[in-house]
Amino acid sequence: MSHDDYQRHEAKILTPSFIVLLTLTLIGFALIAVRFIWGIGAVSNMSDGYPWGIWITYDVATGTAIACGGYAMAILIYIRNHMHYHPMIRSAILTSMFGYGLAGFSVMVDVGRPWNAYNFFIPSKWQANSAMFEVALCVMAYTTVLLLEFLPAVLTTLEKTKWKTLQLLLDMLYARMGMKRPERIGDRLDSVKELAVWLKPRLDKVLIFVIVLGITLPTMHQSSLGSLLLIASTKLHPLWHTGFLPLLFLINCMFIGYSIAILESIISCYAFKRPFETKELSGMAKIIPWLTIIWLSVVIGDLAWRGQLAAAVSLDFYSAFFLLEFCLVAGGSLLMFSGKKRESIRWLFVSAALIVLGGALYRFNVYLIGFNPGKGWHYFPALAELLVSVGIVAFEILGYQVIVKILPVLPKLHTRQQLDAAHVLAEKA
Amino acid sequence: MAKPSRRQFLKLVGATGAALLIGRGAQATAGTSDGYRVDNDTIGMLYDATKCVGCKACMSACKRVNSDYGGLAYERAKFDSDGLWDAPKDLSGSTRTLIKLFKESDKKWSYVKYSCMHCLKPSCVSVCPVSAMTRDPLTGTVDYNKNACIGCRYCQVACAFNIPKFQWDKAIPQIVKCDLCKNTNLVKKGITACAEVCPVGAIMFGKRKELLAEAKKRQQDNPNKYLDHIYGEKEVGGANHLYLSAMEFNKLGLPTLKEEAPAEFSEKIQHTIYKGFIAPVALYGTLCFVAIKNMKGRGESEKKQPENSELGEKHDEP
Asked: Which residue does chain B place closest to A5, by CA atoms?
């Protein structure tokens, strides 16, 4: 494992998109403040019939699947032994870290009594029958693992840093206050640097065990996200309520993970004007259709076994959403089967986007669209409720944008040609 | 290079699938999940819809007795600016029990009383991640502890009767549901407040076996009056709150449910996957083995071939 595969993206931090994202983030967080002062009902349309709304469905159930890029890449690199994808993993882990961190944050916004969350750490309160208990502990553990996995990027930077910005800032501050900067601050900074130098090789030695933990934990909690709805046998539509929910959610997060890794790479290369990683992406795209084929066959086989195939094609409200989800995943996979289309960035983008949409729609169907608590209950998210979710996503993208510009996250541009291509692209733009 | 790992992956998928199938199979033999047995010594209530006159004395008694303990409030109707009446539309974060009238025609109508069913195998207890919902093994009462509750509302998702209610308009909310006056009237007077005040004896309080015997006796004495069905006797594995009625229960807003408790189904799958925590540990062990083997193999191949010319990984930045 080499930490030299990565580089910082040299660019300005304050861009127009930064301002837009910051605004959305601030609106979202202001609404979160409203929620904590006047209750959840003040910003959301959730009700006793639909106790889980868009926050759980999108930010947690779907958001963590979209954050499975790091999980999928780790399987590919460390278990399937394709080391040449290694340069891409750091950015995948960064997005996973944001995805999971913010899913955890959303949960804290969504739950009514977050101050009682410490009960998760009190053995007498443990409740192993609850899929939610498993999800909560696993997600907390995985977020920690992701932080550890990302730590080398921070340590590498600390090792080399000369604290330029901080020095300037301190000088300015002390100048303002009319004081001389004390010596010991420099010493403290040096000791932080020494700590980083000391810690890095030690972390490297155990990192593989952390990484494997980072593969085990999502396998557990992504399947448990499916198990969460097993109990709702009277409320979840039979098209989706099946004993195979855990397996379906697990495979679903894998193909979403690979597809989102492709999308993220294409989007960040486009936005940061770097050359596209076509070769790696098409290699990754080769795996996806096999996963989706397994998934689609389990879905169909299970429907046939439970005698629900007729309901699936009856073209009523539920069947329409089922068919849409099914066709998006199947359509995207068909495109990816073609070797030629896999070589084209455009087609890679389209097919990966279709699969992510289909996979995400599956999770929406299970958590919200296929969920019917009985007569008289309706749910559609309130504007404020949506803006909270938007704010959280905006914060995620914002964080990614800023961090790739201060820490070595993106793959290093290796060869002269790639660099030239980058220059050409930059000049064009 | 890819071959062993693909096999690995298929194994993993296969193992999960097999675990699920075993779960399905085991389900047929039933009765292995913890804490579930039909125990007719638990306490509950029998509501006889044919006796109820809809006076709502039970509703007001419930709120009077439990309001301080349960964080209940009076719910004002829109026209009632002076706040003279308590007028809840449905069970809510302020209302634990409610009388409703269902009228099909002038001759065919029925009252119905809603409150927690106190299931023998309650879904809410099964899903609560922090044991805030508990079932007293002696009395069978399903109770809620707000000091443990994190407010995740999974109990609401899980309950087939839509009983637990959440206080959506409060900054410090809690779940509200009937606890058979466990901490209030039952302690003081040995009977639930609603059963105590009912003027026509529509609510009977007692042990489940007595309630079932009484219900069956009433059905035998008046076979034309009652439906041949005691709601709550077998629904979702049985409940401590039982219903007699002349009108079909699904018309009274009581859902038609299977006899199997949903919690039996979900717990069986969850237990199969996580039995003794063996599967996760085995998965971690296997993955560690594969990853370290891969890493060592890579180290050797890198020594032989220091430059991966295909992808140009080892080139320095110019």
From this structure: B313
